[in-house]
Every structure is written in C-alpha cells, then in structure tokens.
Amino acid sequence: MLLDNAREPLRSTSRPEALNRRRHAKLSRAPQIAPVSVVLSLYSLSLFIFHQLGYLATTTLAAACGTAIFLVAGFYAAFRLTLHTRFTDPTMTSPQIIAVVLLMLVVAYLERATQPALVPFILIAFSFGMFRQSTRMLILHAAGCLLCYLGIILVRGQKEQYGAAFEADLLQWFVLSLSLPGMILLGKQVQNLRQLLSATRYQLEHYEEKSVRDDLTGLYNRRHIKSELEQARLQANAENVPFCLCVIDIDRFKEINDNNGHLAGDTILKEFSKVASNSIRDSDMLGRYGGDEFLLLLKNTDLKGAVMHAERLRVYAHFLDFQKVLTQKHISLSIGVAQYRPGEKIEDLMSRADSALYQAKQLGRNRVEWLES
Ligand SMILES: Nc1nc2c(ncn2[C@@H]2O[C@H](COP(=O)(O)OP(=O)(O)OP(=O)(O)O)[C@@H](O)[C@H]2O)c(=O)[nH]1
C-alpha cells in the first residue's frame, strides 16, 4: 500500500528560523548604544593622550569625559526604560550620532589642539549610521555636521582675525567635506547589501517552509513526516513513551477519479486534508505520503488510544458531504494502525501499519485495523 519504503535523507525538524527570530527579538531588546559608547570611549582615550602631552586642560578633559559618561548613561537608561520604542528608528542611531558629533565639535572649538582627532572620530561616528540609516538621513547628518563645523571655524576665525590657524581649520574642514560623501556612498552600498540579504533571508524561509509541505494539500510531505517519525523513535527510545502510526487510505479513489475527473479527486484530497488536520491534536502530525495515502503520527499515544483516534477520524470523514463534487455523497477511509516497538526501525513500523491497512482493505474497507504491538 505505501508507495515505497526507499530510504530518504533525514531532515532535521528543528526550526532554525524560529530560533533566529527569538535570538533577533532578544538582540533588539538589548540596548544598542554602540555609537555613543564605542566612539566616546575611544575619543575620551584620545583626549586623555592630548592631556598627557599637555595639549588639553584638565578642566576640559574632565568636562568632556563627564559629558561622555552622561551621554552613554542617558542612552542606556533610555533603552532600559524602553523610550527608544517611541522613535521611528528604535535603534536611536540619529540622536546618538548627533550627540557624539556635537560633543566633539564643542571640544574642538574650546581646544583647537584636539582638532586632529575630529575628522577620524566623526567618520567613525558616521560609520555606525552607515549600517542603520537611510542614505537621505546620512546626507542630512553630514550636511548638519559640516555646517556646524564651518560655523565654529568662522566664529573662531573672526575672533582671531582670520590668521594662519584659520586657514589650517578650513583645510581640515575641506578634508572632512570630501571624506563624508565617500562615507555616504559606502553607506549606500551597505544599504543595498542589507536589502539583498533580507530578501534572500525571506526567500530562504519561504523555501524552507515549502520544502516540508505537499504542494496539493499543504500537509507535511513524505520526507518531513518520515523525519518526524525518526525523531519520535529517538524520543520513544530515550524516554520510553509510546507512539503510533496510522496509514490512511481513501477507499476506491481510482473510481472517484474515473467517475468524477482528476480535478474532483484533487478537491477530495484537499478537503479531506483540511478536515483531518483540524480534527487532530496539536501534538499529532498528519502528512501526505503520496496519492490518496496519508500518514498520521500520534505522539505519546498507545495502540488503544491510536485506534480510538483513527476510528473517530474514519467516522468523521465518512459523514463529510461531497455531493456537490462527486456523483456519490460520501467517501470512506481504511486505516491501518501500529504502535512503535522499542528498538525497531521506522521502516518496520511503517510496514506493520501498512499490513494493518491491507487487512482493512481485505475485510471490506471503511474500517480501522491494527497489529498488536
Ligand atoms: N486526483 C488525484 N488523483 C491521484 C493523485 N495521486 C494519485 N492519484 C490517483 O489515486 C488513485 C489511487 O488508487 P489506489 O490507491 O491504487 O486504489 P484505490 O482506487 O484507492 O483502491 P483501494 O485503495 O484498494 O481502495 C490512482 O488512480 C492515482 O492515479 C492526485 O494528486 N490527485
């Protein structure tokens, strides 16, 4: 009765995508303060070196480090208090980059000697935006940053009568204004890659789901149900819990096809699959083995319970009304049931359930037969 017993590669039934989603959800709950924490830690360290070399006053160092700590703590608290969920971008990358860049510009304004640190650290701050922000947002931030920096240079230049230092400041501003567009272009590439990655992930998940389903009925396919049986076997051996297999066959399905056409036959297969999968427990698993044959795996169930389940399904299917589709009103099922014997192979279990089904057919169909375990 079963189409064949050819061994197929077993497929893991664990749901990696579910695991990934849980991991992703966990990650998205974690405070994402890398832009402030990483940039400000490194920047503070560089300020400390400036201070050690005598280029930075202790008060400015203390004020800058204090503000950096305040910002990191503030963003951390905002994440902990879930304030980030109120932002369109819950990673709060924009406010973090703006805060970091403003702090660095103020320090550069107060202590011109620290200016060599400005361009590299602004670029590092923007590199965080590359992964999380749109190109439009990056351009806006870059423009805002360049304007503020130019404003600082002009104010200071006016105070110092536009001397040689002013020219050096302008030079540095030009370097930054030429570097930022490169950063934005790179950001655009990263955005494209991210889009490609998420489209690929979506497709993979879709194909993964499709690969375990039967096209016509949407039930699990033969490969998946065999893999589930193998899992149930391992669990039964390890925990000594019973499980049963039912092989279900629609009686005289060839006649149904011959008398009503294949499309009507397909409708019966689909309708039966829908009804049967709604009538089983969540822990049970129904799959289409092929043609008009289905496998029902009943976990944590002994033979007596399985026969009861099978009988209920048989009666249920028998009372379905197919008058609109078929020349006859009802269909009937023959079902063979077998309980797993500890230590046996899945092929042997399937073969015993198949023998029980053969018996049901021999005894006149529309019945449940079983083999004692
Ligand atoms: N409509 C339709 N028919 C299919 C499909 N797959 C297989 N079949 C047909 O299902 C029929 C299965 O018939 P069998 O199981 O061999 O025999 P039966 O008529 O059911 O007789 P018993 O099993 O002895 O009661 C064959 O005629 C197949 O061509 C399908 O996807 N759609």
Describe it.
The protein contains 12 helices and 5 strands. The chain has 373 residues and is an alpha+beta fold. It has 2 domains: 33-208, no CATH class; 215-371, 2-Layer Sandwich (Alpha-Beta Plaits). It has a 5-stranded mixed sheet with strand order 2-3-1-4-5, sandwiched between helices. Strand 4, helix 12 (346-362) and strand 5 (368-371) form a beta-alpha-beta unit. Helix 5 (118-132) packs parallel to helix 7. The structure holds guanosine-5'-triphosphate. It is an enzyme of class 2 (transferase).
Topology:
Layout: H1 16-29, H2 34-52, H3 58-80, H4 93-110, H5 118-132, H6 135-159, H7 164-211, H8 222-239, E1 244-250, H9 253-260, H10 262-279, E2 285-290, E3 293-298, H11 303-318, E4 333-339, H12 346-362, E5 368-371
Parallel strand pairs: 4-5
Antiparallel strand pairs: 1-3, 1-4, 2-3
Helix pairs in contact: 2-3, 2-4, 2-5, 3-4, 4-5, 4-6, 5-7, 6-7, 9-10
Bound molecules: guanosine-5'-triphosphate (GTP).
| Average pLDDT figure | 89
What's the number of structural domains? Answer: 2
Bound molecules: guanosine-5'-triphosphate
> Which geometry do the CA atoms define?
elongated
Largest sheet: 5 strands, mixed
> What structural category arises from helix and sheet content?
alpha+beta
Number of separate strands: 5
How many DSSP helices? 12
The percent of residues in helical segments reads 55-70%
SSE ordering = HHHHHHHHEHHEEHEHE
Note poorly predicted spans. 2-17
Oligomer: single chain
**End-to-end separation:** 20 Å
Strand residue percentage: 5-15%
Q: Order of strands in the sheet with the most strands?
A: 2-3-1-4-5
From the alpha-carbon coordinates, what is the Rg to the nearest angstrom? 35 Å
InterPro entries: Diguanylate_Cyclase (IPR050469), GGDEF_dom (IPR000160), Nucleotide_cyclase (IPR029787), Rev_trsase/Diguanyl_cyclase (IPR043128)
Keywords: Membrane, Transmembrane, Transmembrane helix
Organism: Noviherbaspirillum galbum
Domain GGDEF: 241-373
